[in-house]
Amino acid sequence: MTTVQKIKEIEDEMVSATDLGSDAVLSIAGQEYVLVRSTSRQLKAKLAKLRRELLGPTGGGGGWGPRIRCRKNRYSYRGFVGFPSVGKSTLMSKLTGTHSETSEIDFTTLTTVPGTLKVHGAPIQILDLPGIIEGANDGRGRGRQVIAVARTCNLIFIVLDVLKPLGDKKLIETELEGFGIRLNKKPPAILVRKKDKGGIAITNTVPLTNIDQDEIKAVLSEYKINNADIAIRQPNATADDLVDVIEGNRVYIPALYVLNKIDAISIEELDLLYKIPMSVPISSREWMNIDELIEKMWETLNLVRVYTKPRGLAPDYSSPVVLRRGKCTVEDFCSSIHKEIAKQMKYAIVWARVQSMREGRKSG
Ligand SMILES: Nc1nc2c(ncn2[C@@H]2O[C@H](COP(=O)(O)OP(=O)(O)OP(=O)(O)O)[C@@H](O)[C@H]2O)c(=O)[nH]1
Ligand SMILES: [K+]
Ligand SMILES: [Mg+2]
Question: Where is the OBG-type G domain (predicted)?
Answer without folding.
Answer: 76-302
